[in-house]
Design brief:
Layout: H1 7-10, E1 11-15, E2 22-26, E3 31-33, E4 49-50, E5 55-61, E6 64-69, E7 74-79, E8 92-98
Antiparallel strand pairs: 1-2, 2-8, 3-5, 4-7, 5-6, 7-8
């Protein structure tokens, strides 16, 4: 069973200094899942357009799967983590250039 939550509980978005981009940071987590299930394509990749509220990845925290949603709409300019990678609080997940 997958328990989901909004982006605010497990991630935050902050402005990226020196650019017009926003960076999505993890607040909690052990492992990042870029794909909804094994063998499926990632939620987003570099160059994709995302809408506010769109799921961009999943963070596993304490055996719960938490959907991370884009807090801004725009273009994914960089994905900072790989599927299955361990993450620490405050680690960048991806960078979105707002519309």
């Amino acid at each position: 069973m997958m328990q989901t939550s909004g982006a605010g509980a497990h991630s935050e978005t902050t402005n990226l200094p020196g650019t017009s981009g926003c960076i999505v940071l993890t607040r909690t987590g052990i492992c990042v899942c870029r794909c909804p299930a094994p063998g499926e394509p990632p939620f987003v990749k570099e160059g994709d357009k995302v809408k506010k509220g769109q799921t961009v990845c999943i963070i596993e925290a304490m055996k719960l799967m938490n959907e991370i949603e884009a807090e801004v709409g725009g273009e994914v300019v960089k994905v900072c983590v790989e599927n299955g990678q361990s993450v620490a609080p405050g680690q960048p997940l991806l960078i979105i250039k707002p519309n």
